[in-house]
């Protein structure tokens, strides 16, 4: 009897917890604290949006949302002493920089924040409440919301999505679509991989051949075997962004509280630039923009002052466009063969007392870091910039280095023993963790199912707690080699981007994959309406 009673009691607890779980509002990323009440608030044509100079843009976006989604033409007012049926924004200096507090009572909706970013994120939550957690009557033209208080703030300050357009140019419409979904999910960094071996996608006015030649390739490797495929498309691919187009996209992102961090690869992944200006390469030989994927063979001759001036000129125009404090310089997968076989490079290394190619790379990287710092910027790069050996094709002796990476560098960890990230943190470097086995969106769902993506923790398990603040966040990377169409990209990005958004925002103690999958149904409705061709459920968990 005691056993039966215990089983019954346990069953009641499970059922009760499932009931509570199903009743909680369904929002991605899941908020820090949700306190529900018993009363309701109704939004109708009489509801007013209260604004001042600081909140005018956010109120306008909210007004457009209600008009587009519910056909409500809500009135706006700057009168601050309304008694009921209004939505208002208030300043609360005690809240975190990106945090907010959303309160819905029977009289009003109040969004408190320290700044406009917090108000913006509170507004995104309100939109999810209205779209997926409310009762809408199109006949009575009213929207009924439950009484609730939501206290919320992000877990990490760097919540990034990366798009590689060097391999396949997507264009402004798709970039804006991605920015919209990032904003809705409270992601705040768009990492834009604009150049690589297979294409140069940004206009540099001082060097027009970068787009005249470097933005075009005559064919592209395709096929089910991917990296080993002998099949070519036999069709040219091209495209780049003018500086005016980039300015438009940057403003679009800024309006959504997203910082765009440009990535200009150096000294490797540079074949498109070398095809445009052969004197940039170490071999000095003419070449074409590659039609096969993989790592390019030639690299920038970083011992040549003309090459270094070119890179500074490019960065000068990039910085004039992008207000981001952080500039990503890549630095990954540099093949050292040309440096090793070049007499002029070897002479330079002896003059500078650089014993290995890795010494040369770190020395070069630090010079770029100093240049960026002189302009009030900060350098970021993949974790090869520390001189570590991450690749089997590298000679271990070539990757030994006595050079110390510039102190203010941000290390973008993507590959290697996690102890390398721990070492970087202990040495004082800030780290964005993008471990490829958990965050690379070009991986198939059988290798990176949604559950594995959701399980990622940017803070390594064995990292001492005193270094946890050095892990500033994560990035998820949509590498472009095998996404020739927009649909290919959508399939790989969605729904996994929602998992990374929740990792970046939601406190670890609040994460729950079962709850996440339930709330994901709401996003799938949104994506369907926007013609985003996300991967169906039967594929995202297939092993």
Automatic annotation (TrEMBL):
The keyword Acyltransferase does not apply. Residues 25-153 form the Beta-hexosaminidase bacterial type N-terminal domain. Transmembrane segments: none annotated. Keywords: Glycosidase, Hydrolase, Signal. It comes from the Bacteria. GO terms for molecular function: beta-N-acetylhexosaminidase activity. SUPFAM superfamilies: (Trans)glycosidases, beta-N-acetylhexosaminidase-like domain. It holds the Pfam family Glyco_hydro_20b. Residues 156-507 form the Glycoside hydrolase family 20 catalytic domain. One of its GO terms (biological process) is glycosaminoglycan metabolic process. The keyword Hydrolase applies. Belongs to the glycosyl hydrolase 20 family. This is beta-N-acetylhexosaminidase. The lineage of its organism: Bacteria, Pseudomonadati, Bacteroidota, Flavobacteriia, Flavobacteriales.
């Amino acid at each position: 009897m005691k056993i039966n009673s215990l089983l019954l009691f346990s069953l009641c607890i499970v059922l009760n917890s499932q009931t509570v779980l199903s009743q909680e509002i369904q929002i991605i990323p899941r908020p820090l604290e949700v306190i529900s009440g018993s009363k309701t608030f109704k939004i109708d044509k009489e509801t007013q949006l209260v604004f001042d100079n600081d909140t005018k843009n956010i109120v306008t976006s909210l007004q457009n949302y209600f008009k587009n989604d519910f056909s409500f033409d809500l009135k706006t007012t700057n009168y601050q002493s309304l008694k009921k049926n209004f939505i208002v924004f208030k300043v609360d200096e005690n809240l975190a920089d990106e945090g907010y507090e959303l309160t819905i009572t029977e009289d009003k909706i109040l969004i408190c924040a320290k700044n406009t970013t917090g108000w913006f994120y509170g507004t995104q939550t309100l939109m999810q409440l209205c779209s997926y957690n409310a009762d809408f009557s199109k006949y009575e033209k009213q929207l009924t919301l439950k009484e609730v208080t939501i206290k919320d703030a992000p877990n990490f300050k760097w919540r990034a999505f990366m798009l590689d357009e060097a391999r396949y140019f997507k264009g402004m419409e798709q970039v804006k679509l991605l920015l919209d979904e990032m904003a809705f999910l409270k992601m705040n960094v768009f990492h834009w991989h604009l150049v690589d071996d297979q294409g140069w996608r940004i206009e540099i006015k001082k060097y027009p051949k970068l787009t005249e030649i470097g933005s075009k390739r005559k064919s592209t490797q395709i096929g089910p075997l991917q990296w080993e495929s002998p099949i070519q498309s036999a069709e040219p691919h091209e495209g780049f962004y003018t500086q005016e187009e980039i300015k438009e996209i940057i403003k679009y992102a800024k309006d959504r509280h997203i910082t765009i961090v440009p990535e200009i690869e150096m000294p490797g992944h540079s074949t498109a630039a070398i095809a445009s200006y052969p004197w940039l390469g170490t071999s000095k030989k003419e070449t074409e923009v590659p039609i096969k994927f993989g790592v390019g063979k030639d690299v920038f001759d970083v011992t040549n002052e003309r090459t270094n001036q070119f890179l500074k000129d490019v960065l000068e125009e990039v910085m004039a466009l992008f207000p981001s404090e952080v500039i990503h310089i890549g630095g990954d997968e540099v093949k050292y063969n040309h440096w090793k076989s070049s007499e002029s490079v070897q002479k330079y290394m002896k003059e500078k007392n650089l014993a290995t190619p890795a010494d040369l790379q770190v020395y070069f990287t630090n010079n770029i870091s100093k240049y960026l710092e002189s302009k009030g910027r900060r350098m970021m790069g993949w974790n090869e910039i520390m001189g570590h050996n991450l690749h089997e094709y590298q000679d271990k002796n070539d990757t030994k280095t006595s050079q110390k990476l510039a102190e203010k560098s941000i290390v973008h960890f993507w590959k290697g023993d996690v102890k390398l990230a721990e070492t970087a943190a202990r040495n004082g470097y800030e780290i964005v963790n993008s471990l490829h086995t958990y965050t690379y969106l070009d991986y198939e769902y059988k290798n990176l199912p949604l559950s594995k993506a959701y399980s990622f923790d940017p803070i390594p398990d064995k990292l001492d707690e005193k270094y946890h603040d050095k892990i500033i966040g994560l990035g998820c990377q949509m590498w472009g080699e095998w996404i020739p169409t927009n649909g290919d990209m959508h399939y790989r990005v969605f729904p996994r981007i929602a998992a990374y958004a929740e990792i970046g925002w939601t406190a670890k103690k609040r994460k729950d994959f079962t709850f996440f999958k339930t709330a994901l149904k709401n996003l799938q409705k949104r994506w369907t309406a926007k013609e985003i061709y996300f991967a169906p459920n039967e594929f995202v968990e297939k092993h």
